[in-house]
Structures are given as C-alpha cells and as structure tokens.
C-alpha cells in the first residue's frame, strides 16, 4: 500500500504538470491576446509598456518557463482583464458560492437517488421500477442549460414563485436566501438522482442472490430486515467509491447553471475569463479544478481498497 501511495502521488504531480502545460499552449494557440482591445486604443509607447508589464512581449517558451516556476511557488499571476484580480482572491470570493450550490445539489440529489434506487430494486419488474428507470433516463438525457431555462421560465417567469437570477451574499451566504437557491439546486440535482438511483439499483440486484442473503432469508428474517442488514450494507460499496467524485463536482461548481442564474461563482467567472482570453485566470482555475479531481481520484482508489477487502493494490501482498 505504501509503495502504491507513493507511486500514485508522483503520478498526480506529473498529471497536473501535463494539464498545466497543455492548457498553456492551447491558450497560446488562440489568435489574439487579452490586451489587444485595450492596447489598440493606446499610444505606441503606452502599448509597449502594457505588454511589458504582463510579460507578453517575451518569447512564448520564456513565458512558459516563468509561468510554471511561479505556479510551483503558488503564484498564478494577475488577471489581464481586471487589474488586481488574482486566482487566490477569486477562489476566496467565489469558491464558497460554488461550494454551497454544489453541496445542496449533491445532498438533495444523492438522497433522492438512493431512495429511488432502493424502491426500484425492491419493486423489480413492477410499475415503480419502470417509473424510476424511465425517470433516470429522462433526467440524465436533458442538458443542464435546457432544464435550467425551463425551470426559470415556468417557476420564475410564469408562476413567479422564485426569483430568476441572483444568489445570497454577506451573512446569508451559507444559510440564508433560500428562495434564490431553489431553482439552481433543482437544475443540478437531477444528475445525481439519475446516477445514484441506477447505481444503487444495479448494486442491490447483484447482491440479492448472494448466498448470505439466501441464508438470512432461510433463517426467517423479514424482507425488510434482509434488505436493511444484508443487501443494503453490501450494496453501498460502489456508492461509497462514487461519492468522492460527487464531492469534487459539488466543490468545483456548475458552469452552465451559474451562467443561467447569474450566480457569482467560479463557473460563471471561468466562462467569462475564457471569452475574454484572460490567460492567467483560465490557467490558474484549470489547474486548481484539475487538482481537486486528481486528489479525489487518488482518494477513491484508496477508499475502494479499504471498503472492499477483495481488492488488492499493486505492490501489496496478495490476500
């Protein structure tokens, strides 16, 4: 396990470096630069000073090496478009917004999804099973922006039950302004509902015919006791390994949802930065979001080995 952990750690570092490198050169391949619109309105001398300030007057490879060294030291640079804005300040101001939205989506979606998964598995081949399967296929097929616009049109535009845009701030950032969070939360939670309902149903159906389940039934345990004590407990192994990825998704935010509902989170700013070719911000946020997913994948691998003793890590003794 120790050798595997060390090897995976160095693989994480290498993967993050490759992502940063690929992102840098892809951004450089885009025609133009973030200063073009501003620089064209300035005198030649001022324009040269502006490019020198942001280092865009230097060769690409020199800028690449400088950027990599600075990022290794935790400095992602300053925004080209908004003076004084940095990745660190952006995460401080906007990450809590994206985190609250994602946590609400995950908690609601996972809870409902697990409930529907249990219902579908225990009612296999009956109407509830078909309804859950059909609902899962429908929810997983509708893009977020379509569902968000539909909810916005009906509940904010026609019925006027909830506000169409906005997000709580200040003292209400975490536990207030619930009316603003309902539609964005519903828009994003349905993916979790579809994923976890199908995942738990499949896992329960794999477990239901195992010998220990048949033994428990032969001892006279009620169906509810068998499901609760034996089927559910062993069916949650795939769910536990999927949960870390859901946590990563809830932290990194929902790009389209934040744009639709004008939520001032990381996702909305990332889309704006891409449109403005704000190179340092796009690169910094990409590396940060990638780091979260890479760490989560690492944790998932370790967690899978811990919760399922049948899994043997490379380099460990066979069991």
Number of strands: 0
Mean pLDDT: 83
CATH architecture of the domain at 94-261: Orthogonal Bundle
Helix content: over 70%
- Measured by DSSP, the beta-strand proportion falls in under 5%
Quickly count the helices.
13
Low-confidence stretches: none
The CATH superfamily name of the domain at 94-261 is: MetI-like
Query: Distance between termini?
Result: 13 Å
Structural class: mainly alpha
Main β-sheet, in a few words? none
What gross morphology would you assign? globular
Please trace the helix and strand order, writing H or E for each element. Answer: HHHHHHHHHHHHH
CATH class of the domain at 94-261: Mainly Alpha
- The CATH topology label of the domain at 94-261 is MetI-like fold
Give me the Rg, rounded: 24 Å
How would you portray this structure in words?
73% of the residues lie in helices and 0% in strands. The chain has helices at 2-29, 36-39, 44-53, 60-72, 87-122, 127-141, 144-158, 178-207, 211-218, 223-252, 255-260, 266-275, 279-307. The protein has 319 residues and is an all-alpha fold. α7 (144-158) crosses α8 (178-207), α9 runs antiparallel to α10 and α10 (223-252) packs antiparallel against α13 (279-307). It has 13 helices and no strands. The longest helix is centred in the N-terminal third of the chain and has 36 residues, at 87-122. It has a domain at 94-261: MetI-like fold (Orthogonal Bundle). It is globular. The two termini are 13 Å apart.
